[in-house]
Amino acid sequence: MSFKDVYRIVICMLISIVLSVVFIYVFGQTNIFLSILNNLFIIASILLIIGGGFFVLQGGFFNGITYSFKRFFSRITRLGEYATAIDGDVEYTSVFSSDYTYPILIAGGIQFILVLIISVVYF
Predict the structure, then answer these.
(1) I need a labelling partner for 35 at 20 to 30 A (CA). Which of 67, 104, 118, 123 fits?
(2) pTM of the model
(3) Which residues have CB under 8 Å from 63's CB, separation 6+?
(4) Distances (CA, A) of 107 to 41, 42, 117
(5) Does residue 54 contact residue 101 with C-beta atoms inside 8 Å?
């Protein structure tokens, strides 16, 4: 893990803490510690979902489906037939790549586990 990844993880966690505090002031919640835990849990869950989505897209789960649709539509449309005749067959390409996938997943996972541990100890 490089310094950039650690920096991104720390920034992601700090942003989520700041968002949690902002949500407390915006919605005027009374029990501050419980509200921080609830907000951090929700933000950690969102980070895990976004990071998981990035991981799935980066892993190429939908590349085969996209390739199949491109190939199918190039065969059934007249314009697609002309393009295939000129350029050859449709190429299999990777669509998505991100440097933030693992930092988002790690930051969300760390926050998720810390919030679970703190909530078990606190309650």
Answers:
(1) 104
(2) 0.75
(3) 92, 93, 94, 95
(4) 12, 13, 15
(5) yes
